[in-house]
Design goal:
With 189 residues, the chain is α/β, with parallel strands linked by helices. The chain has a single domain, classed as 3-Layer(aba) Sandwich (Rossmann fold). 33% of the residues lie in helices and 23% in strands. Strands 1-3-4-2-5-6-7 form a seven-stranded mixed sheet, with helices on both faces. The longest helix is centred in the middle third of the chain and has 14 residues. The model has no long low-confidence stretch (mean pLDDT 87).
Length: 189
């Protein structure tokens, strides 16, 4: 099992040539403000590791966090709300990252459990499926759902997001955070 206690920010990358390829990658992807930085902080038990912003679109680069010299957690800019990053440049960078990165071991695709799937979500699902990219869907903010809403999310995952494993998660739910840590550890073996 990877030790998530020894984690440090390494760098931000603006393009493939700035990326790091000496360790396996686990990338966090999702809409803006879905909780990518919060999940990094929860996994690493350090609330100040990745900057968490209340306003969407704060992360603009690929941010690399070295986890015990075992892997990089990569925090990607959110899709769906990009003001100061040109869409074409972002799409090109991400397309290249996913299609040419032999160090990519797992995509943690974060979806807000309280929101309907958007067209961008469905497009990204198709992209992941078409390119056969190992993905774990992390439904964030699940602590804000009642049992009926949780059942609805699980039905949606089985029906509309077929082929990927998923977990209901919350930064307050140690069990789900431990489950994600375990899946990450297994993915880089």
């Amino acid at each position: 099992m990877v030790n998530f206690k020894n984690v440090r920010f390494v760098k931000s990358a603006t393009s493939d040539k700035d990326s790091l390829y000496d360790l396996p990658h686990v990338i966090m992807v999702g809409r803006s403000n879905v909780g990518k930085s919060t999940l990094i902080n929860s996994l690493c038990n350090n609330k100040n590791l990745a900057f968490v912003s209340k306003r969407p679109g704060h992360t603009k680069l690929l941010n690399y966090f070295n986890v015990s010299d075992s892997l990089y957690l990569v925090d990607a800019p959110g899709y769906g709300y990009r003001v100061s990053v040109k869409k074409d440049a972002f799409d090109s960078m991400m397309d290249s990252y996913f299609k040419t990165n032999s160090r990519l071991k797992l995509v943690l695709w974060l979806l807000d459990s309280r929101r309907e799937l958007s067209k961008e979500d469905l497009d990204f699902y198709s992209f992941l499926k078409e390119n056969d990219i190992h993905t774990l869907i992390v439904f964030t903010k699940s602590d804000k759902l009642n049992q009926s809403e949780k059942s609805k999310i699980l039905s949606l995952a089985k029906r509309d997001l077929e082929g990927f494993d998923y977990v209901l998660s919350s930064m307050n739910d140690k069990k789900s955070i431990d489950q994600i840590r375990s899946i990450i550890s297994t993915s880089i073996e």
